[in-house]
Amino acid sequence: MRGSRNPMDGDSIRSSFIRFFEEREHLHMPSASLIPAGDPTLLFTSAGMVPFKPFFMGEQTPPRRRLTSCQKSFRTTDIDEVGDHKHLTFFEMLGNFSIGDYFKPDAVAFAWDLCTGLFGLEPERMYVTVHLDDDEAYDIWHNDIGVPPERIYRYGNSDNWWGPAGLEGPTGPCSELHYDGGAEKGIGQHPVTDEMMTPDDLTAMLRREADEGIPAEPGGCHPNCDCERFVELWNLVFMQFYQDLDGVRTPLPAPSVDTGMGLERAAAVLQGKPNVYETDLFRPIIDSVCRLTGREYGSDSETDYAIRVVAEHARAASVLISDGVVPSNSERGYVLRRIIRRAIRYGRQLGLDRPFMTDVAAAVIDRFAAAYPALSENRDFIQRVVGLEETQFLDNIRHGMPLLEDILHYLKTPDANPPALLETAGVDADGLAAARASESIPSAVAFVLYDTYGFPPELVDEIGRREYGLAVDMDGFNVEMEAKRERDRAGHQVIGSMEIVTAYENLGAGHTAFDGYYRTSIESRILGILRDGEAVGQATRGQQVEIVLAETCFYAEGGGQVGDRGVIAGPNGRVNVEDTQSPVAGLIVHRGVVAEGDIALGDAISAQVESERRLDASRNHSGTHLLHAALRSILGPHVRQAGSLCDTGRLRFDFNHVGAMTPDEQLSVQSLANSKIRENLAVTARETTYTDAVRDGALAFFGDRYGDVVRVVRMGSADSDGHDHADPFSFEVCGGTHVHATGQVGTLVVLGESSIGGGMRRIEAVTGRAAEELVVQQSATLQAISQKLQAPVQELEARLDAYMADTDALRRRLAETERVGMRAEAESLLARVRDVEGVKLVASVTSASNVESMREMGDYLKQKLDSVVVALGAVIEGSPMIVTMVTPDLVDRGLHAGNIARDAAKLMGGGGGGRPETAQAGGRQPDRLGAALDSVTNLVRDGLAT
RNA sequence: GGGGGCUUAGCUCAGUGGGAGAGCACCUGCUUUGCAAGCAGGGGGUCAGGGGUUCGAAUCCCCUAGCCUCCA
User: What distance in Å separates the CA atoms of residue A207 and residue A204, rounded to the nearest whole number?
Assistant: First the structure.
């Protein structure tokens, strides 16, 4: 092998692959973000063809029919497998694509030339697979390329058929290239023999499986075998059919090719390494983990496994963060959180009990900065996010630790108090006994710790074993976990309302042309009228209608911007439009009431948007773009729009961010936005293709589905002739209406910033008229306060402080006076001590204004009299209240303050209770307070008797 | 989107239907000039918000919000 003398490093494999295809007229497309743009159904970009899906689906025109790329990819399916030699979450996928251009012969030839020529792999080590029925591909490999039959294998649908992705779409057979690492790698890993099966034998076996359902059980080795001999290097997908919803396949007029080669695997093969972790793509990261832990890679399998987990997850996490993912409790952010935490867990296993992920992330950034500049651009942010997540996880563990310690302690020493968590986990006495008998920690406990506190079961096990000799029942844990999955799945339900959509479709109006970006009035014709969801020919005064026009200048609610209001005037009547919506893509519906006369299908009308209101919304919409750009500039490029509202009054902007914004950051954002407003930047819009827009650097809001043609809005990049310059302040894909220059926004005032869930923040602001109104209102409030406090605005704060200090002093003095009064009253009560069978009793109505005072009087009496029963009453805010006290010596003689209070209160229509020494009671009949207190004498007598 | 948990002093958190607490931090004084100093005193609370049950709710019930966590 030529590569073995001077093996290619990962970077040159990447670049030479791209160059190879560029030389063959392919256009090099830069890697798209790991966050798929415009495809809300997909969590991550998981393969090279994902960004090109609209091209393959025929929804968009590709910039060229031959494309090549090295695509960052992320797959969540085998996170828990990562750590072995094979699985990765993040990987780079090299690929060449033909969109209706060349097909099998060229694709095969390219792949062969690249492997055996550019990569210098020995042809004898290359094995080829094709689909059972794909004789075309077989013949090309055999006749044109010259691969001998003994190295061409056929496989069925599970191995060599692709697609469709989803319910319908392009689909077709695949052909794969496998690299033979040598027979010795597979020794002892086969059911019967380590010898290769012949292609004919395997084909016959797979045919029987496909036709007769007899499971294929290969006894020997073959390219798709589970042993470690073969590496699947390259997958060529031949999209030659279109499969519809019923599963019927029709040949595509222009078949396409999609191929994918994992960069990491290619590097392992070309560098002669046993697995991807030994390649130069991983080695620097592995080395950094070793430096941190003081361990050596290759010393023992358990250590190696942990090192690989840390390295892989740190790499994946860094790239995810550089693409704008931030840890959170759901979706992408949750996947990121999981891999960071999994890495920390394995780091712990390597003896790292202090934060270390930022250091590993640094190694990742250093290694990949050249290929992915976004990594070094976001270096600080990546490290900060990883560091924060690490501290948060350590916090969780710190919180869970005492809970776990209590349980472990209780399992070992049964006479301790049972921890509450046991009950939460639903562990009964039997379960407890079983756990103690088997020296194990009940799986329900581990589950609750994990489910509620994020405390990993592996850690419970580790601590349990080390400190108490107790292990976690992992099987039981997995059962609990599976049960939870079932429960959560049951909670899922999707409701769709198709009837509404069809009502609009039945209108037959199809598509409404929108011409409202630069005008607010238009002449058009009524194409459809809906009343209560039914198409009608006309409508009369007072009726609620929905109107479809041939062409409109009314903006339909979308992109966070509210729909327009206005008037549609026809020859015989007028409609007040209250809202404009787009219930079906491309169709604009005006909702409102016929205000005068009547309207009918076909009427020629003039439509007029309420322009002041439209302008308010436009100001807010432009305001969100300014905010978005300012936020990215101040907080970092990870800021990504998650939703927005551009109403007429205020605007709202939701975005990803770690933690709350500081007041300083809020001010900086506001100040930057306002300086751009004062610069009066030109706001220009033009139409382009989605791909071009994104390639030029326009921000696109994930979650929106963009069509073939999109509109991009720039602020601050066009000169007076309308030519675009580099580096606009703001550049977004957006269909909303905007002001013509930022100065029209007026002023932007940030109202506040708040959380809307993990990793998501919301900022609210006002612009233009609303901002002015806010200032007017606030200064009016200030003036009013200033009048009331009799002080100029500048001195308000000092004046208020003085008032508060005064109030404070007065309150204290009042309390003190009251206390003195109460003391005096208490003293007078000393003269009214009665004797009930040798027990001193004070029972009296007082003038106390709160229960507190009565307690203080009681305390005083207890202190003075040593041994006494006190029952004090007062009417507080209309309700009779009683406080009772019994000194400890009398409690010993059977008296109970709580019982006395309760029984006495019955006489005034209430109840009460408390502790033996102190209690209180209340009632509903103030006039019975005296009687209640009188009854205490008898209650004491009864209490002493029993 | 669904499940579980939490929200009490500036911070970390106890709190069992009947007097809102501890440690740290803060302030004052004393003591001492050294490693988390010590002693004494003090200030600081919408017990997340709202509703309900009750004579009485931080505590029980319901709703809302925020945060943590697991799952999708």
Answer: 5
